[in-house]
Amino acid sequence: MRWDELVERVRTAGRYDTPAEAERVLRAVLTVLGGHVIGDERIDLVHLLPPQAGALLAAQIPVTEPVTGPEFVETVARDLAPLTVPEARWATGTVLSVIADLAGDDLTHRLLADLPRGYALLFGRAELTPAA
User: Fold this and answer.
1) pTM for the model
2) What is the CA radius of gyration of the chain?
3) How high is the pLDDT of residue 126?
């Protein structure tokens, strides 16, 4: 997949008016995500995505303290100012859902297993808990 194809998928999924708007959102979310994805999952995701997207992920230094899903969205909102938190939640969910579709179920489950609870919906997945 090429960068422009990934941007187009984000543009379509997020219903953005222009490729430039979709690219801005894609870059912001990938940059924040890059600090939170580590290990084999990071390597697999970098190789799966177009080179420009993989480079954005790989260039980020892993965070020392994981953040919750809402904190992740707030970070994206700051990077995409003047977007509001609800707009950033839409942007984050759009990009991460596109990535989950590209990654497939196995890699997406591995990514979610390494992230704190609360990210599944951002990836377009249900977060099921075992019955008590």
Assistant:
1) 0.93
2) 14
3) 82
